[in-house]
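[[Sequence with tokens]]
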Amino acid sequence: CGEYISASNLALLDRLGVGDAWRGEAGPEIRRVGLFSGNASIEAPMPGARSGPAARNGFGRALGRDILDTLLLDAARSAGAEVFQPCRAVAIERDGDRQAVRIQATSGSPGEEGMTLRASVIVAAHGSWEPGPLPSQLGKQSRSSDLLGFKAHFTGSALPPDLMPLLTFPGGYGGMVLADRGRLSISCCIRRDVLARLRGSLARERGGHVPAAEAVERHIMATCRGAR
């Protein structure tokens, strides 16, 4: 969650063949959990794994998805998976007792034929809101209560390396953790209507467009003292 992986999940990384690489790359052990809300900040010890394979791993740590995803992709190749990249799936259809997925190179034209792959199971891991032609990409209707997610990395943080705080702020929540290479990873979500109101207010002040990410950062800094 937010690039943090708890100690109880490290056995899975070992089975996938990336456990040692993850340990070599991940940030410091997280031994304290915190809550930053308004002007209040509280902390508590993070319980470590007490039994089973996770016990030897002690505490969880964080690793950027840019590194973790590459480790997993390389492990898949080493295990015999064939990777088609960069490609997109443009159609999924039943083919007898199997499924067929048609893929195209992302640099190709919309009318390009592409390639068809067949398998008994197809996993459409495209996210819940990405539009497209696949049967799993159902139409969505935007609502004011929708939660929009953001993630960013920062350097030069003053956050204690063993502390992972949860952030709460008007309209949303998030978390911070020190990940690999000294990067602070912050992930959060905020209501659609709150974000629209924040951006509109800043745009009126400045007389121009305000990026969503900037509006979210300013909102967190203004309303959550611990994040400053």
